[in-house]
Amino acid sequence: MSAIAAVNDLVIRFANVNGTGSASANGLFAKACFRMGIPVTPKNVFPSNIQGLPTWYEVRVSEQGYLGRREGIDFIVCMNGQSLAEDIASVRSGGYVLYDNSKPLDLRLERSDVNFIGIPLAAICREEYPDLRRRQLMKNVIYIGALAALLDIEFEVLKDLIGDQFRGKDKLIAPNIHALEMGYRYAHEHFDCPLALRLERRDLVGDKIMLEGNVALGIGSVYAGATVVGWYPITPSTSVIDAFEKYANRLRIDAGSGEKKFAIAQAEDELAAMGIVIGASWNGARAFTATSGPGVSLMSEFLGLAYFAEVPVVLFNIQRAGPSTGMPTRTQQSDIFACAYASHGDTKQLLLFPEDPRECFDMAAESFDLAERLQTPVIVMSDLDLGMNEFLCEPLVWDDERQYDRGKVFNQQQLEEMSEKFGRYRDSDGDGIPYRTYPGTHPDKGAFFTRGTSRDPYAVYTEKSEVYVDNMERLLRKWESAKQLVPEPQLYQPDNASEYGLLFFGTSTASCLEARDLLQADGFALDCLRVRAFPFNQTIEQFIADHRQVFVVEQNRDGQLRKLLVGECDIDPKKLISVPLYDGMPITARQVIDHITATTRSAVVTPLRQQPARG
Amino acid sequence: MSYAKSTFRHPSLQPNQLGYDKRAYEGALSTLCAGCGHDSVGAAIVQACFEANIEPHKVAKISGIGCSSKTPAYFLGKSHGFNSVHGRMPSVATGANMANRDMIYLGVSGDGDTASIGFGQFAHVNRRNLNMLYLVENNGCYGLTKGQDSATTDVGSVSKKGQANPFTAIDLCATALEMGATFVARSFSGDKAQLVPLIKAALRHPGFAFIDVLSPCVTFNNTTTSTKSYDYVRDHVAATGAIDVIPMQQEITTDYQPGSSHEVTLHDGSVVHLYKGDVDLDVTCKVSAQEAIRRHQLEGAVLTGLLYMDPQSRDFHQMINSVKGPLRDLDEAALCPGQKALDAINASFR
Fold it and tell me: Which of A87, A376, B264, B296 places its Cα 20 to 30 Å from the Cα of A178?
């Protein structure tokens, strides 16, 4: 029988039952690869459920450093009877199936083209542990021990990880290591270890770190000086707030009094969460909230108010598959329209698109500066994949000299020295950005009435058409100013090398760059650009202008970013070819290649020479 | 309405202890209908802030949408104001208060804004015991959209539209008591003598103070068949008794006879004197207040005055243990942990 042979290049999938404690054991596997210096990408595929439904954890190990998801499961750990048939069927020919053979496998599930590795996990646990919960938990640790032998994971690395995981609960360390050893020993005694598919120590991760994007957003908000949070629980955004609270509790407690230098309100709904952010920002604090699609819909009215009344807002949108409740535990980039033009009337909202946790941290900090500088909402467009999965990325960096940009705010002294009347919405600098004052600043000067209705430059209500239009035009000038301030797109080549471009953003990045490499190897060159912000600046328009055709990869059905580019940059729609990958799973290079190949075959562009090799 | 605001001030008008005359507490010219109850409420707010020696710019006025929510433009012109979106004043006020606990927050809302579209937010701002005065100008109808019944319209009440309201009315004071308000009062825009001291006491109360002010809509709901008309309210009012607020260390000088009053001491040492009326009510007892409201309702009377106050009130900031001063005043040094702490955080992710 054939057996897949590879070193440091594999996809392993763990099939578990939700709520059985598998997550921390599976996390050990990914972290062990990382500590052996090998690039690794874990993805959680979990149900909208607390206990009982199937859940999968998929890990790609790639010595070449490709961090996107990859099709083709080389190894599956089957720990869920409900999904067993599906799981066994999902393995590539020549792959491996680790299963619990305490009871014999249903003959109908057998495959002659894969390698079955039976370990009597339930029987071992029954013998070893008297209580049921322990049996369930330890089973997970035992199969990790078996994998250590089968795939050649350094046992010391696993032992260290157990030590880290149970620091402070030291009496759990020895039993967990014992469980690892049982699995390790069993595998060694019953199989030829290691398999032809295995791991080997490398030095490829340097000082990189592994964390979830949501955690990075939370830490970034602590560093950015956010003090007020209003929020409402919704998957997959909740862990942003959890992280902020955790790190603020650690780093933002007044040493003398023990009091908190931050305030968090769990609101009654997303409307209130956004109202809290607006009220706090209006009153001079840095405030934020985090939500996902349904929350964005609810916040829309308030986002329009913040746009029009010019109040800073920082919103982290951890996108999930829509529409409506959609697939709440699957990923997508499908809130582009809902956010870019959030609210009724003519509105435009600033969007930032992070690609990894490091950029989540940077953009969290930047979003507060931008929101206050431009006095407008800034929406950071993360997604479930980035938010809830650990990503390998560069370490977080903060410049200790950095000052927060609090924007144009007149203080007490400036108001005191002012001879002319304060005009809240006067464009005195010509950049469309007016000056504001915080409530309570000065006894006689600087007070104004903030409202969602039309008003004149002095914040006085008006229904005069020309005054209304002047204000709307000023908001457009401010939008132009924003183009100079938002992050530049990332280009991946010194000069254009092709007539074809590949444009993407956020979590599509890793798979798009892998697709580019594979297509390149096959003789089809693509220039790449990663969009990092809306409004789009000149570099993006130039990139599109410089290419005959540009493929736009995005994780939604309707090509929302493509349409935004067409509309905002006045581009010929035929020039931009949509690559919509929106099934809710993190995208793969293969999917990108297949779409591009199919498009080129249909003769819109020059046909490719041939299908590239497996990605 | 008139088209110009008179700048004339009586020469004998005395400034308050801070040196502000009453004009410093006024706002822009009202654009409400002549005779609107809301303008009387605005005048009472001006009077209360003046008498309470509040610095005008230390007040933040926040409102939602509707006739009532427009009124913050017509008083306290030296204060920042925020006319937000319909029914959402409580959340904006919550955020504002979280940012700076050292200011006075005055929320103004209406019965549509509070009892319908904003009912959820109203409930939850009570629960937080946010340190603010939440004042409803309650006229039992939607004025700006021309007189539809609201959720506080009494069953059987007939407005200018001519249809008797078949739906149960929401009693906002009873709701506030249930949801956790620590100061609850009802008043009538036509009774400034009662309303002004209530506002003064509410502004001083360290927690969520709610005043439901019956404020007739002269255009759509001042009919002989309405239960929110001037005449109806005047004829059916029963008061809990007058109150007086004595700031800390100020000598008590009142016209009332000693022994006829009940004292409630606030955290800062100020004293609220409640002069007993005919109503049997213990204002520090929630159950007593709920019972009194219900009893008067059944008798067809509108119970006004101070209904409940909790002298042990702990506001939102105390509940969440945030620092004493305004969060908005904290700078990089206080807020940003720096690269050294980040090195340790990075290490924990390896």
Answer: A87
